[in-house]
Amino acid sequence: MRKVQFTETVLRDANQSLMATRLPYADYAKILPVMDKAGYYSVECWGGATFDSCLRYLKEDPWERLRNIRKNMPNTRLQMLLRGQNLLGYKHYHDDVVEKFVELSIRNGIDIIRIFDALNDFRNLGTALDATKKYATARTVASGCISYTQSPVHTVDKYVEMCKELVKMGFDTLCLKDMAGTMSPYEAEHLIKGIKDAVGDVPVILHTHCTTGMAYMTLTKAIESGVDVIDTATSCFSNGTSQAATETMFYALQQYGIETDLNEKVINQVNDFFKPVKQKYIDSGLINPKSMATDSQALVYKVPGGMLSNMIANLKDMNAMDRFDEALVEIPAVRKDLGYPPLVTPLSQMVGNQAVTNVLVGERYKNISNEVKNYFRGEYGIAPAPVDKALEEKILGEGGKPVDCRIEDSKRTGEDFRKAKEALGDLAETEEDVMSYICFPAQAEQFLKDRKAEREKRVTYTIVEA
Ligand code: CO
Predict the structure, then answer these.
(1) Among 197, 200, 254, 306, which is least packed, fewest CB within 10 Å?
(2) Distance (Å, whole) CA 428 – CA 443
(3) Distance from the CA of 297 to the center of ligand 1, in angstroms?
(4) What is the pLDDT of residue 459?
(5) Quick one: angle between helices 95-107 and 431-439, nearest 10?
């Protein structure tokens, strides 16, 4: 019997997409033992913005959160999202830092590491992949992930080639990540068929968002075309900018006669638990009704929803909304000049801001942002397609070539840990504390200071009581 399995995203991507990753651990601790019996392929619960949000807003230790989830869900594979050499941020970390981060993630309870690069420059996945293999337990899975985007150079053949490359590198599974929710059912059919034909037994996972309203159709076509795992969110945390609903896809698959491993009673129990949680955040205003609706703008304008609202805000700031149509035409032109990067953070902001500048200045690339200059210098990796030669020459000088910043930036120095430890002094109690500081220095330091103060307060209290 054919089987399609489910990755439940309520703890990470649904939380991130609908409520800016502000769901505290305490709000879902009680349901974890129940979720452990649902029969998910995995539960995505860590990485992405959860780490930063824990330290910055929720005053939680992200590592402790992970250990607690692990303890309460011993039978379920726990999954995280990792931005390759950038870990959870936007800068390149040294190889020894990347390796240590992966080691600690696995040690604290992660089973599946989904590794991607914003530009699909796979050199940025190698260190994280090797570390995953090095520290793997019997249940560790290294998942190679492709940032999905649409452009004249992003053909089915190109994606198939990328998948073959990821398999060759040693990834155990493949994931197509459609963060803007713009993959159509037609594209899903051709992509999944093409990829499955090329990679045979390697499991293929589809990650998409409901943002534009296409996700259910796209997932259905992907399932008919042979996809192995789909990402969904428990229904009260589904739709809008989040994933398609777990229970809905489960019922649809039952009629196909496709096995899912899901326990119907349990997945409904999970949804019942999260309903009042969601209501609490609608009432508090943290969940914006806009994020729960369908927004077809991305299909009309061919730019992701978040990027469009960013551009509108920029134009309004500059009292230039009358230039909206021109800026909209300029976006694909800038993107072409940059060699068609996927429009994800930070590239979406880079392309959008340069397009607005080009229009408002009245001359293309008269003013070039530092980000665009750094992009041409090679700081973000290799562009998916050749960049505009004239623009490259303008930025790099005649005959100038981008340098391979990755090699220089990622070298092992061993210095990062020593410096971080030194900076933290007695605030750092574990390797995990030091790693939090390396990833998010200001947030981690504040968190560790607060933790220390809290503990000292408690000690004093105990003495007085005694
Ligand atoms: Co996502």
Answers:
(1) 200
(2) 14
(3) 18
(4) 75
(5) 130
Start-end of CATH 3.20.20.70 domains in the chain: 5-284
Expressed in angstroms and rounded, the spacing between residue 68 Cα and the centre of ligand 1 is: 23
Distance 177 CA to ligand 1 centre (A): 7
**What is the Å distance from ligand 1's center to 416 Cα?**
30
* pLDDT at residue 407 in the model: 58
Neighbours of 430 (CB within 10 A): 11
Quote the ligand 1 centre to 340 CA distance (angstroms): 20
Indicate where the chain has its CATH 1.10.472.90 domain(s). Answer: 289-396
Dihedral of the alpha carbons of 229, 230, 236, 242, in degrees to the nearest 10: 140
Q: How far is the CA of 465 from the centre of ligand 1 (A)?
A: 49
Q: For position 230, what pLDDT does the model report?
A: 98
Q: Please state, in angstroms and rounded to a whole number, the distance separating the CA atoms of residues 88 and 102.
A: 11
Report in angstroms the alpha-carbon separations of 267 from 15, 33, 207.
Answer: 17, 12, 19
The CB density around residue 168, as the number of other CB atoms within 10 Å, is 10
CATH code for residues 5-284:
3.20.20.70
Cα of 231 vs centre of ligand 1, distance in Å, is 9
- Find the 393 Cα to ligand 1 centroid distance in Å: 36
| Res 465: pLDDT | 55
Q: How far is CA 301 from CA 186, 187, 308, 328, in A?
A: 19, 18, 8, 7
Q: Closest Cα to residue 86, out of 137, 127, 136, 45?
A: 127
448 Cα: distance to centroid of ligand 1 (angstroms): 30
Structure tokens at 286: 């943290």
How many A from CA of 200 to the centre of ligand 1?
25
pLDDT at 410: 66
Give 208 Cα–ligand 1 centroid separation in angstroms: 6
Domain range 289-396, CATH class: mainly alpha
